[in-house]
Amino acid sequence: MTDILIFTHVDYCPPAHLARVLEQAGQSFRVVRADLGELDGIDLDRPKAVAIMGGPMSVNDPLPWLATEVAALQHFIRRDIPLIGHCLGGQLLAKSLGAPITRMGYTESGWQPLTRLDQHAPSPWLEHLAGEFPMFQWHGDSFAMPEGAQPLLSSPWCSNQAFAWGDKILALQGHPEMDEALVRKWLDDWHHLLDDSQPSQQSRALMLEQLPAKVAELNKVAEGFYRHWLQLAAL
Fold first, then answer.
1. pLDDT single digits (tens) 186-213
2. Integer angstrom CA distances of residue 37 from 6, 21, 66, 68, 77
3. How many Å apart are CA 3 and CA 27, to the nearest integer?
4. Distance linking the first and last C-alpha atoms of the chain
5. Residues 129/162, Cβ–Cβ less than 8 Å
6. For 99-109, what is each residue's pLDDT tens digit?
7. Closest Cα partner for 143 from 74, 93, 77, 83?
8. Which of 65, 62, 67 is nearest to 36 (CA)?
């Protein structure tokens, strides 16, 4: 058992750049799939930091393992350990804190501009970021703000892009974990799900345009989040 758990929910939503950051920092981690029953036997009092990745399902789907994962996240929240959620993972954190998750009625996809909302109370989660910056998106659900949460980021298509709750929880609607290979894989395997005639969705060609440079900048955004998450865990 390691000090870091990473929840994933499907093979094609891996930790990606998060795993690379942890490996470069010499931090071991364990990837856990609640949907495969892998939470059974896990000592939930052991982890010092937990990350929750994305997935194609909705938090509101009638899948029994979702309740199991939410219960585990609520245990971690009570323990007051650092938690960071990506897309579905952010929605699972919102649900664990009592907030609803709803369909937006459209898909937000591609490199979308995010705007900081913490001007009056700057968040340490965002101290490495400019006032506006792009993040890769692919989602059709959105979380509401849990009671007591601090809204952190918004986009033109999703006003609730991120929140902090307490000093150790960061929920993100976007995908800072993406690397170049994962962007290409999603666009190769799932481009048929996109409709670039919709203004909230970028075309595949635009998403791939100058991809190495876009991913390099996204990596810097992600590394700031992950650095703070590890510091909070004293790792």
1. 999 998 888 888 999 999 999 999 999 9
2. 14, 27, 11, 9, 21
3. 9
4. 15
5. no
6. 999 999 999 99
7. 93
8. 65
As given in the structure block, the two tokens for residue 125 are 């989660």
SS (H, E, C) the chain: CCCEEEEECCCCCCCCHHHHHHHHCCCCCEEEEHHHCCCCCCCCCCCCEEEECCCCCCCCCCCHHHHHHHHHHHHHHHHCCCEEEECHHHHHHHHHCCCCEEEEEEEEEEEEEEEECCCCCCCHHHCCCCCEEEEEEEEEEEECCCCCCEEEEEECCEEEEEEEECCCEEEECCCCCCCHHHHHHHHHHHHHHCCCCCCCECCHHHHHCCHHHHHHHHHHHHHHHHHHHHHHCCC
CATH topology of domain 4-232: Rossmann fold (3.40.50)
Q: Residue 15 is encoded by which pair of tokens?
A: 């930790």
Q: Which residue has the tokens 């609520």?
A: 74
